[in-house]
Amino acid sequence: MTLTIPIPNALYETITTVACEAALAAGRVAHRDYINASPETLETQQKAGFFDIVTASDKAAEKAACDTIWSRIPASRILGEEGGWQGEGETTWIIDPIDGTSNFASGLPFFCVSIAAYHLGEPVCGVVYDPIHSELFLANRGRLTLNGALVKPFLRGRTDREVEILSNAPYEGERPSRAAQEAHADLVNSFRAVRRLGSCALHLAYVAVGRVAIAYESKFSAWDIAAGIQLVEASGGHIVAQDAQGRRIEPRENTLGSVKRLVVAQAGFDYQSSCLSKLMADGIL
Q1: Considering the entire predicted model, what is its pTM?
Q2: Domains of the chain, start order
Q3: What Å distances lie between residue 128 and 44, 175, 203, 230, CA to CA?
């Protein structure tokens, strides 16, 4: 039997404070460069292809977050979207400096900073910060807050017909298969509306605070979902995480990289009767 050693209160609070400070620091860079967009700040490189880009601002925002963390908690190791693994220590940070880079580069005001923190493998906090709308979503100690105020989401609808679903699928980079097109058509036919907003982390945050009932994603990395999953957990929401073979897994620090399909839903939403539940069970999405 493995015993979990409680995280000292002082360290817990320090990590949470630093996570918020790092998110705000990265957000200031992103907000500044969004408002004062120029060829220099929007200098773009392709990663996986024309559909997957990084800008100079992504790198600058990640540096701002990392510098903030290491200045306060030097014994930290960081997984950043742009820098990969850096540093050593018992506290782990998973960072997406600008989730929704394509929106950011195109001038669409829908992107965020996502930071999740763990200590000795235990989740400490998840922070999603939207610098355009000055909204900081925070999960810690089982509590969900928005700009410091406790959030108690109410259920907007129990069935597909009553709610929107957020999903970035089908994804850019290749023509969707016939099965993927039919699955998307099923979602369009079942839900009141299907929305594709371009930021996985904000999709999860919006479900957590009750702005939308359900979200689905299947093309992401650990930094896209790490903080958002903590937000949904703190809200008491429903999480379905599957690996590449469709097996259910618990999305924790050491398993996030194995999560390939993810559904999050508000507590009380009838997921078992949802069109999405059947598509997931059949392995179609």
Answers
A1: 0.94
A2: 9-150 (3.30.540.10), 160-281 (3.40.190.80)
A3: 24, 31, 11, 10
